[in-house]
Each structure stands twice: as C-alpha cells, then as structure tokens.
C-alpha cells in the first residue's frame, strides 16, 4: 500500500513538471498566439495535477485562467474580448473564487 502511494505521488509530481515545462517553453515563443497556447496547455496540466492532489481551490483558479487564455487566443476574432467589461468580468470571477474558497 505504501509503495502505491509513493508511485502515485511521483506521477502527480511528473504531471506538475510537465506543466512547468509548458510554461518555460511558452516564453520561447515568438508569437502571442503560441505563447498563450502553451500557457493554456500548462494551465490544463496544472488543473489535472491539482485535481489529482485534491486541491480544488487551486483548480478553480486555474479554470478561470484557462478561460482567460482561451479568450486571449480569440482576441483578434472576437473584439469584445479586449473590452473593459470582459476584463472586469474575469477579475470578478477571480475575486469571487478567492473569496469563496
């Protein structure tokens, strides 16, 4: 039983290191679209890691960041993404999730 938990913890940490790698790679990208795509993948990987760890508060915050990155990827196609209303809504979501958790 103890060996299983060590293996599980190591796998969860490997998931986390993969997320870190996505973030490190993202800063090497020359276009904003690629940067946001790699950061989105990093957030998704960290979301999985947090769920595996049972850290649901962090997972909720990451879900908001994933939404933000998705919107940033579509900023050229959807002009409303750049509005102050959208920014305000994301801030309210982040503040709300922080307050609730």
Number of strands: 0
Low-confidence stretches: none
Give the topology string: H per helix, E per strand: HHHH
SS field, number of helical segments: 4
Overall tally of domains: 1
The major β-sheet equals: none
Q: Helicity, in percent?
A: over 70%
Global structural class: mainly alpha
The shape, in one word, is flat
Question: How are the secondary structure elements laid out?
Answer:
Elements: H1 2-26, H2 32-53, H3 56-73, H4 84-100
Helix pairs in contact: 1-2, 2-3, 3-4
Task: Report what the structure shows.
The chain has 101 residues and is mainly α. The protein has one domain (2-100). The protein has helices at residues 2-26, 32-53, 56-73, 84-100. The chain is flat, with a radius of gyration of 16 Å. The mean pLDDT is 89.
